[in-house]
Amino acid sequence: MSCWMPQCPALSMCRGLAALPITCLERAKDLKTRLGILLHKPELGHKAGSSSKLQLGSRRRDSSREVLEWRESFDQLLKSKSGVNAFHTFLKTEFSEENLDFWLACEDFKKTRSKTKLASKANRIFEEFVQSEAPREV
């Protein structure tokens, strides 16, 4: 899919998401800002102490780095399992999670090599997301 915004400053963010309503993208930007604010909260930082606390702090720093990458690139969020989960949770609040599910199904379809599986996946995508009156129509 191509970008539906002619002067889109970040075409890579728009690629594959043309089906999402503009309000959803605006809310995603708001979520991105909120996640960034959470990163600066002191309780997310590392505390000195036992080795288990040290490991927990290290995992939090790794997660913080990952979330910071999401701020830089929507593609990074989509490459991250926890990023996709967070975005999916957000989309549920907007009653539009079928858009992400459709995109994920299409990405899985593109990776499929078996012709038998391709036909089966294409049919499932069509029936679930594309055909008129589909249960999760996009």
From TrEMBL:
Keywords: GTPase activation, Lipoprotein, Membrane, Palmitate, Phosphoprotein, Signal, Signal transduction inhibitor. The keyword Phosphoprotein applies. GO terms for biological process: negative regulation of signal transduction. Its main location: membrane. The keyword Metal-binding does not apply. It is a lipid-anchor. Residues 73-138 form the RGS domain. It comes from the Eukaryota. GO terms for molecular function: GTPase activator activity. It is found in: Membrane. PROSITE patterns: RGS (PS50132). Residues 1-19 form the signal peptide. One of its GO terms (cellular component) is membrane. PANTHER family: REGULATOR OF G PROTEIN SIGNALING, REGULATOR OF G-PROTEIN SIGNALING 16. Regulates G protein-coupled receptor signaling cascades. Inhibits signal transduction by increasing the GTPase activity of G protein alpha subunits, thereby driving them into their inactive GDP-bound form. Plays an important role in the phototransduction cascade by regulating the lifetime and effective concentration of activated transducin alpha. May regulate extra and intracellular mitogenic signals. This is Regulator of G-protein signaling 16. It comes from Ploceus nigricollis.
